[in-house]
Amino acid sequence: MYPTLESMGINSFENIEKYTLRYEGGFDVLKIYYRREKGSLLPKSKKFKFGRATRTVLADGGLQQYREVSEPSLVVLRAVDELGRLLGQEFEDKLTKEDLIKELDHLERVVANKVAELKEKIEKLS
Q1: 90-114 as b/e, with b when 16 or more CB fall inside 10 Å?
Q2: DSSP per residue over 45-72, as a string?
Q3: Is the CB of residue 89 less than 8 Å from the CB of residue 19?
Q4: Nearest to residue 15, comparing CAs of 37, 35, 40?
């Protein structure tokens, strides 16, 4: 029924709550969130990274100038299509201020944890 999602290792379709798709560091990042009971040991989300295909296209017909264009992977396009059908919605790439603040807070925590980890490793070497 959802061959692309199944090939990605996703089986519990009924527990999918939402998904996000963003471009990060040259990759399309698809994150799928699940509904989980409190205390569940199963992951609340799964993240998938997809490389982009690049191709050279003629930018201006008269001057023979070319430029590289990156395109999303067919796998990510199919996965997003299947998720849209599964959730009964079209994917909307509308960011709200709250979404950006949450993402920034998460990034700050990740960076702070990584800095602390590196400082600890440096201390062990001294």
Answers
A1: eeeeeeeeeeeeeeeeeeeeeeeee
A2: EEEEEEE-EEEEEEEETTTTEEEEEEE-
A3: no
A4: 35
End-to-end CA distance of the chain: 57
CA-based radius of gyration for the chain = 20
Can you give the pLDDT at residue 102?
83
Q: From CA 12, how far away is CA 45, in angstroms rounded? A: 12
Confidence bin at 119 (pLDDT 50/70/90): very high
Place of tokens 């989980």: 36
Average pLDDT over residues 15-42: 89
Q: What is the mean pLDDT of residues 41-65?
A: 83
User: What integer is the mean pLDDT of 47-68?
Assistant: 81
Q: Could you tell me the pTM of the whole model?
A: 0.63
